[in-house]
Specification:
By secondary structure, the chain is an alpha+beta fold. Helix content is about 20%, strand content about 20%. It has five helices and eight strands, in the order E-H-H-E-E-H-E-E-H-E-E-H-E. A hairpin with a 2-residue loop joins strand 4 and strand 5.
């Protein structure tokens, strides 16, 4: 299964992946309209300092602790992708605490959000990968 991988030696720390992610999950067709004046809440985030930076997003683990810890059944695995059903999420944030990588975050509506590899929109491969100017984020099988 293809997953998102980060080549941290190529990451510029530009945060464009965060903007592309927020746009892809906004439901608005025009990027300028989707992001202008909005506080972005991406499912990927850039961490690091002046020496090294890297993007952090869901690893879609083979044995996901977040799914095992989800008390409402909102998290499930479908074709190797860990998906969230926000209608089932009760906002307990057990999955946030369970994720060893810190990839699940509170969403604006009191539930959680996480990378779903852009399976919930029509962009094909993840938009963060498409928008990375230095090709530091890749979508491949390893």
């Amino acid at each position: 299964m293809k997953k998102i991988y980060v080549n941290e030696e190529w990451c510029l720390g530009c945060h464009l992946c965060e903007y592309y992610c927020a746009y892809a999950n906004s439901g608005i067709e025009d990027m300028a309209k989707a992001l202008k004046g909005a506080a972005i809440n991406p499912r990927i985030r850039v961490e690091g300092d002046n020496q090294i930076s890297f993007a952090v997003s869901c690893r879609h683990c083979d044995e996901p602790l977040c799914v095992k810890g989800c008390i409402s059944g909102a998290l499930s695995v479908k074709d190797g992708v860990i998906e969230v059903d926000q209608n089932k999420c009760v906002g307990c944030f057990t999955c946030v605490l369970s994720c060893p990588y810190g990839c699940i975050q509170p969403a604006d509506k009191g539930v959680i959000q996480k990378c779903q590899l852009c399976t919930n929109n029509s962009h094909g491969k993840p938009v963060c990968v498409q928008g990375c100017p230095n090709k530091a984020i890749v979508f491949e099988e390893r």
